[in-house]
Specification:
By secondary structure, the chain is α/β, with parallel strands linked by helices. It has one domain: Rossmann fold (3-Layer(aba) Sandwich), CATH 3.40.50.720. The chain is built from 5 helices and 7 strands. The chain has helices at 44-57, 83-114, 154-173, 198-206, 220-227; strands spanning 9-13, 19-26, 31-38, 64-67, 134-139, 178-185, 238-241. Helix 1 (44-57) runs parallel beside helix 2 and helix 2 (83-114) runs parallel beside helix 3 (154-173). Keywords: NADP, Oxidoreductase. Belongs to the short-chain dehydrogenases/reductases (SDR) family. InterPro entries: NAD(P)-bd_dom_sf, Sc_DH/Rdtase_CS, SDR_fam.
């Protein structure tokens, strides 16, 4: 995996607060630089400025972008819920992916067509290993595929279904210069699920063939696969990692 990312810029968007982590990896020098910035991912101008700034800081190129911002539905059914709640979750879960894709895509396209850094300089040395195309990965959810009982979260489900189809569409648009894929996790122990009552967690385990709640470490292999050149012939794909929940 390290060889695939040699000289690349690894860009990750975080939780609903808009935390970004940027990792520059240069294997030959055994150098890893990690920086964190906080950005409002529902603001298209702020997202574009952040992406441009980080690409400038890290060697003038962008190879991998993971759009992972998201929030849970905190209301009840549709009728009593305020429209503002719907707009907020759509802005965080769906609009942010569009903004991130648009900001990352222009760099993927430039690098493929012009073979230059953000400042217009030719890339130094040979073409990077494992960087035939950029890789854009967005986090969706198993709720893009099923209505997850006992949760009542129409807006959340719709936002994640939108992420999947948006990325399938982008995979066609960007076939020349980037691969675009999504990951649909099942119920994972994380900040978004910490408030779920224990009895509801027990119901989810019962409905999952593997009879467990997923751990964050169990997701990393999926993202590494899509980020690396191991998936060079994979685009427009949604990988469901849900312990088998959607099989029933």
């Amino acid at each position: 995996m390290d060889e695939q990312l040699n000289g690349g810029c690894f860009f990750v968007s975080g939780d609903k607060e808009g935390v970004y982590v940027f990792v520059w990896i240069d294997v030959e020098e055994i150098e890893r630089v990690v920086r964190a910035h906080q950005v409002d991912v529902t603001d298209s101008d702020a997202v574009e400025e952040a992406v441009d700034r980080v690409v400038m800081e890290f060697n003038g190129r962008l190879d991998i972008f993971i759009a992972n911002s998201g929030m849970a539905w905190e209301e009840t059914t549709v009728l009593p819920s305020p429209i503002s709640a719907y707009r907020h979750i759509m802005a965080t879960n769906l609009d942010s992916v569009y903004f991130c894709a648009r900001s990352a895509g222009k760099h993927f396209c430039r690098q493929h067509k012009e073979k230059t850094t953000f400042t217009g300089e030719p890339f130094a040395g040979e073409e990077l290993v494992g960087c035939k195309r950029g890789s854009f990965i967005a986090t969706a959810s198993m709720n893009a595929h099923v209505v997850n009982y006992p949760h009542v979260q129409t807006a959340y489900n719709a936002s994640k279904a939108g992420v999947v189809h948006m990325c399938k569409s982008l995979a066609v648009e960007w076939a020349d210069f980037a691969r675009v894929n999504t990951v649909s996790p099942g119920f994972i122990q994380s900040g978004l699920t910490a408030a779920v009552p224990e009895d509801v967690q027990d119901q989810l385990k019962e409905k999952t063939p593997l009879r467990q709640i997923g751990e964050l470490d169990e997701m990393k292999g999926v993202y590494l696969y899509l980020a690396s050149d191991a998936s060079s012939f994979t685009t427009g794909t949604d990988i469901i990692a849900d312990g088998g929940y959607t099989l029933w």
